[in-house]
Amino acid sequence: MVKIGNIELGEFPLFLSPMDDITDLPFRQLCKQHGADVLISEFIASEALIRDAEKSFRKMLFAEYERPIGIQVFGNDEDSLLRCIDVVADAHPDFIDINWGCPVRKVAGKGAGSGMLKDIPKLLKITAALVKHSPLPVTVKTRLGYDENDKPIVTLAEQLQDIGVAAVSIHGRTKTQMYRGEADWTLIGETKANPRLHIPVFGNGDITTPQQAINARQRYGVDGILIGRAAIGNPWIFEQTKQLMLNQTPVSPTVANRVAICRKHILAAVDFKGERQAIFEMRKHYSAYFRGLYDFKQFRIPLVSVTTLPEVLSILEHIDEHYAQ
Fold first, then answer.
1. In this structure, are residues 73 and 88 in contact, taking their beta carbons and an 8 Å threshold?
2. Which of 78, 132, 218, 248 is 20 to 30 Å from the Cα of 48, by its Cα?
3. What residues have CB less than 8 Å from 160, skipping those under 6 apart?
């Protein structure tokens, strides 16, 4: 049984990897309903939380059935992060995840996220303070290192364990790689194989199919898998992976299934965020929901152009009718 602290996650947990403006409450709940074992919030800036920013507080909202769930935070200032921990703990998630992995310029360029991998002593000092301060288990999501010449993850994971971190999630790229090239799982596997490391190691990067998740488990021995971009418009990837783990043939959704799940998603998003914001943000999902369908362009362009919920629902109905013929 894999655990974060005393929280049982199952034999091989499948995580929905946190993604900004993607893994909001409506999408997380869909993924939970389709087999995701562990959910993590969108990442939240510590500075925004301690300033009582409404958007950041909304990112912490979750339903009880989403558990086990972690709230992920980022920042580069120890005092702000410590104050942030108090705010997050009051929301009562199951664990708090520290993001030392985000590579985007607006985060890493300020020394937060994977930018902190350039200063490992500071990273460890801040993390140790957060672990000591937090009433909840603290986990870390990070990368192999800062660049091709600096990949300290095997040692870093052990150091994080030694200061009390409950688990580590590793994306198989460096900060400078961003999301380019292929994820390198070799060092993730070496980290897991370190005989001095006893906390769970979760792998992340380029898991786009159920078979790739199975392969990563078998080849690298990780305790669980994070699935990120491959879940966008494809929440059933979690249950398909579980089916394959049981030597069952993964069940692919019909077009009618896809339409029904997409409709459920947009209705929940409108209820949670309001029509205007939900319509805009759902545009990131439509192409993925209907990926691979022939002659879909006639629907894709209208879907990313309309501005009201009735228009979206009408197009979805037409998609259902068109592919049912």
1. yes
2. 132
3. 124, 127, 140, 168, 199
Q: How confident is the model at residue 81, as a pLDDT?
A: 96
Residue labelled with tokens 């879940």: 231
Task: Give CA–CA dist 203/221, Å, rounded.
Answer: 9
For tokens 């986990």, the residue is 139
- In the chain, the domains with their CATH numbers are 2-245 (3.20.20.70), 255-324 (1.10.1200.80)
Q: What is the pTM of this model?
A: 0.94
Nearest to 81 by CA among 17, 41, 134: 134
Structure letter (DSSP) for residue 119? -
By C-alpha distance, which of 68, 66, 128 is closest to 95? 68
Q: Residue-wise over 210-238: b if at least 16 C-beta within 10 A, else e? A: bebbbebbeebebbbbbbbebbbbbbbbb
Residues designated catalytic: 102
